[in-house]
Model the fold of this input.
Amino acid sequence: MPRQKRTPEEYSIDPAAQQMLIRAEEIGIGTAFTRADDMVPCNIGGAGMCCKLCGMGPCRLTKEGQTGVCGATIDTIQARNFIRAIAAGSAAHSDHGRDMAFTLKAVAKGEAEGYMIRDVAKLRMVAAHYNIPIEGRAPEEIANDLADLYIAQFGQQRGELAPVIRAPKKRQQLWRERGLIPRGIDREVVEALHRTHIGDDQDPEHILQHAIRTALADGWGGSMIATDISDILFGTPAPILGKANLGVLKQNMVNVIVHGHEPTLSQMIVAASQDPEVIEYARNAGAEGINLSGICCTANEILMRQGIPAAGNFLQQELAILTGAVEAMVVDVQCIMQALVGLAANFHTKIITTSPKVKIKGATHIEFDEHRALTIAKQILKAAIDNFQNRGETKIPDVREDLIPGFSHEYINYMLGGTYRASFRPLNDAVMSGRIRGVAAIVGCNNPRSRQDYLHTYVTQELLKQDVLVVETGCGAIASAKLGLLLGEAGLDKVGPGLREICETVGIPPVLHMGSCVDNTRILTVLTQMVADGGLGDDIDEVPAVGLAPEWMSEKALSIGAYCVASGAYVIFGGSSPVSGMPDKVSDSDLVLHYLSEGWQEIYGGKMEFVADPNEMIQRTLDHIDKKRAALGLPAYDPARFGRSGDSRVRELEQLPLNERRTALYGVSE
Done:
């Protein structure tokens, strides 16, 4: 039976989302939230105990010792299902990287309309990693060679992926000894599918070993390539003021939302929206101009580089249309709900698909081509402008929040040491002294089966109280943005004393927005440099750091989690496990789940666990951080040791009489 219907407050902690959910109920329109209530998940398939990889099935294994028709055991079936999810997630992120590489090649050859190399320094730095000559060469020449190198990584059949050399030396050695370094991105994905065909790999540990290699092809391959090229073409992010939530939509302007994951499209839409011809076209249509905003990781791409506001994260794509104020939602790839078209039919909103890989029945398709990028972007915007006259009643929630995104790895270096002494040394020192207890990377999706944004923000806030520095990407970052955690000193009264002192001294928010979900590779780069700067061990598995995906739902999240584990990280997923066993029973159905934790930890120093209770997530995070601190010989965490200096202490002292102030500062009085 369907679960009991939840209230808007139970669906989401976001007041803007709650308003739109009330409106949806009033006009009788379903959303992902209500569909989640109506659709009872299959507990057999949800636990990975169902195999449908051949025509003899589907085979559902619900009894101890039961096998599929071919004799496949439950652990083999779960391992196969798990690696297929990782292969799909890796393919999605890596295919994005492939498209970016082809765009870089076109820009280098002068064949991509509207694009240019915006960060020559990043281009030269990345090229130098691979010994591509840079001295005395034009940026286009360097970019052409880098594009060729990156394009080759996808079809390469033998050897090692080039970006792997950027991992810690000790980690590279481990991967080589285990035969885990990806040979080519596409090869590992294809082999994952081949191994799981009927009658192939039937050793769960062997299957999961290749799951790691497939995930590494994403994290230290396709995703890293995508982030590098995005920075080169669109600029390496630095802090910029932005806004988030549905209140960024404007009544008097043409509202265009870009949704998906491809910055090649969204960046060009931004450029086209600033063209005087397009602005005049909008004014002639009766609007005051064009108002762009983003949903999902496209939101993060244009937010952190251009300051374009974010209308919300994954679960707000439908809610944005419910405002009645969106002329067009322009989508490309990944995380796009098919329900958008049916929902938009109740309003005037156009759903415009743009990728040759993605069409939705009933949507308008305007295919994007980087060679004619600006021309097509203008065409898309004019279609949205033409739709402005069809707008009916609107209801835009008056809810928005300021934020500071754009903390790239390069900017963190700069903010900690300036132009001439850029370094992670101050961050390492803060961790070593105990001012910062450790680091948590909180990333991932929204899931309508949990309360939107609650797990993200609850875990974030509780860890901040414990002096854990938080870095975030993807929809998790937008969740914190909507709560005001990404703005300067906002919320510092709820941050632990040591972390607060660091935030006040450096001038950073307690939560650092590092980009889109593909930009989790920035976090790998940060951890690698923390290792290189010394004092925190000689590999990532020794750093007091944890990765969390509290509201995960996509296959990409599993790929991200697997490559982080392979890199040495402890990764905690919220919600249920896709390879959980039979409820309340220890049996063969727990073998894979155990291997992802204890087995992987023994091999890689990292592990993957699925934890439903947020308080347990927090406790496991803190226990892991404290265990790593102890192993490094660092002082035990003690919040009473710090926090009596910095801005807050200065303000306290200013309120004291002069004599008492001298006593407090120097221990003497007149």
Observations:
- The first helix runs from residue 8 to 11.
